[in-house]
Amino acid sequence: MKSTWELLENRVIYYECVIRALLMALDVPIGKLHFGHCVYPLLSGNTPLTCCGYAGKCRSETLSELVRKEYTFDVLRLCGQVSQRDALRAGAEVVKQVDSPLLSGLLYPLLQALDEQYLKV
Length: 121
Prior knowledge:
The protein is 56% helix and 0% strand.
């Protein structure tokens, strides 16, 4: 990915605001307009969108659904921040050392770190 997750989230919010404002300026009814990124403001802890007088309405989700999505989002974020070399070194004690390690062995230390955070251990 060429940009950070934080920058990506800000771009998503910005583009939604621009598109919404443009459509409103052209008197296009936006009552049924829906953007499919609603989970990102929830995952980051940001408040719903408030641009252009619009308060974003995300579909209601249970806490466990949000935690699963947040966990998955955090896994993807870590994958974008940790190098192959660092992941391999972090898993050296628990992952069998071979010439061509499986991807699961590289993910193991990332998942373990997140498990510690989410399970509060």
